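Why should sequence recovery work at all? Because a backbone constrains its sequence more than one might expect. Tight turns favour small or flexible residues, buried strands favour hydrophobic ones, and helices have their own preferences. The token representation captures these environments compactly. In the example below, the structure is given first.
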């Protein structure tokens, strides 16, 4: 029987722990550092997600068969290289390959070389030059991105020049994202439906997961500032099999091929954030790990043994596996957040009603920013819980998720009320 270590402490990691622990081949799952939810479904280990030395030592000492890395920070720091150098099996890209997420400029350069469709872009290191560029352009809307990692918050979609100039000054002058904002990209704004396509890659073989749609804006109707994600659902009805074939042939395969030619072979999860424009799908961003909150509803629908799949991917043997099996039903994840998120938050409040929420049919409450304090579960982060439900259609899944949410209370808790509505408006009426 296998032992598995999941690295990270968010909702995606709780979903990974929950799914991996269901494998008949797995005897024990550890999570480092984990949260209050992973403590119920696994054994938490008090080691930070970016402490590669101690994590590798733990994996050796406890004879871990497979380590699965959730968040981007340790991947960009090179945790996979560190583990592999010590003969430890790990699922996640190398430091060189993780630069696809670690540097938006590197990502754009790879896409340009691979001829992958994406937004036009311009690179700046000087605020005066960037402001002058914006002022001289005819268009009013721009996307301003910090080059490096900024915890999902380094992107500003600006509908006018004043907002764009403010975003430029925040990154290059005020340095709100530190070194991550030393260089910025200014992009054209793409219009259309957003969809997330996640693929497991073992260097050569690509296996796509079921497509999902994330909701980045803080408030209903896609209003307000960008967040790490306020909810997601799957399947996304506009992500047809024909579209997925096009994404594989025109986006994923050229990217993986170009990465290999670049000397940075990709093994791990390649997450393509896409905009479905009138000219076809275009890449908004690449991530190098499962999305959060997309992982929660996607893994809820996965029927295949996740341990088997990730073990094969880590060993470069995805081609030997049968096709993934999926639950035909819909799944939705609604994020419950702390007061103030995505800005400064109020934390340390006791969360009530989790046991009651857990009684909702076909529902799992995944923990993200939680801890156990004196026997109580408290909120410790901006995104606190991902309430995730299955249903025969999105309407039923949404109804269940929000029923569970009604049970849960803490001071300042809030969520969006419209997760999945964009898809539900296109669902066929019941017979």
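From this structural description, the recovered sequence reads:
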């Amino acid at each position: 029987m296998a032992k598995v270590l999941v690295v990270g402490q968010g909702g995606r990691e709780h979903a990974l722990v929950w799914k991996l622990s269901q494998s008949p081949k797995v005897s024990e799952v550890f999570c480092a550092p984990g949260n209050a939810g992973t403590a119920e479904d696994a054994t938490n280990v008090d080691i930070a997600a970016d402490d590669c030395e101690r994590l590798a030592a733990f994996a050796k000492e406890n004879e871990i068969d497979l380590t699965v890395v959730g968040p981007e920070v340790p991947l960009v720091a090179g945790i996979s290289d560190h583990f592999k150098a010590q003969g430890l099996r790990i699922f996640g890209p190398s430091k060189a390959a993780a630069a696809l997420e670690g540097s938006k400029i590197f990502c754009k350069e790879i896409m340009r070389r691979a001829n992958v469709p994406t937004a036009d872009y311009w690179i700046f290191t000087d605020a005066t030059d960037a402001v002058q560029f914006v002022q001289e352009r005819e268009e009013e809307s721009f996307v301003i991105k910090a080059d490096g990692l900024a915890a999902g918050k380094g992107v500003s979609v600006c509908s006018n020049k004043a907002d764009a100039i403010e975003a430029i000054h925040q990154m290059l002058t005020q340095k709100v994202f530190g070194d991550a904002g030393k260089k910025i990209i200014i992009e054209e704004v793409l219009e259309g439906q957003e969809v997330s396509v996640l693929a497991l890659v073992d260097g050569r073989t690509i296996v796509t997961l079921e497509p999902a749609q994330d909701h980045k804006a803080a408030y209903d109707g896609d209003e307000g500032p960008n967040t790490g994600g306020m909810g997601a659902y799957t399947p996304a009805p506009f992500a047809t099999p024909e579209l997925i074939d096009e994404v594989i042939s025109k986006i994923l395969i050229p990217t993986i091929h170009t990465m290999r030619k670049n000397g940075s072979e990709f093994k791990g999860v390649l997450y393509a954030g896409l905009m479905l424009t009138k000219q076809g799908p275009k890449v908004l961003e690449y991530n190098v790990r499962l999305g959060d909150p997309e992982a929660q509803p996607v893994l809820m629908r996965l029927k295949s043994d996740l341990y088997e799949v990730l073990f094969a991917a880590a060993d470069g043997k995805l081609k030997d596996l049968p096709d993934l099996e999926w639950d035909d039903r819909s799944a939705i994840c609604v994020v419950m957040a702390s007061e103030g998120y995505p800005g400064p938050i109020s934390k340390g409040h006791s969360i009530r009603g989790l046991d009651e929420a857990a009684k909702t049919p076909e529902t799992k409450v995944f923990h993200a920013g939680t801890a156990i304090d004196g026997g109580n579960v408290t909120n410790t982060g901006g995104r606190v819980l991902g309430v995730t439900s299955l249903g025969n259609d999105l309407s039923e899944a949404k109804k269940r998720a929000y029923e569970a949410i009604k049970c849960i209370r803490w001071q300042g808790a809030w969520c969006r009320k419209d997760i999945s509505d964009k898809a539900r408006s296109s669902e066929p009426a019941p017979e």
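A few observations help interpret the result. The chain is about 30% helix and 25% strand.
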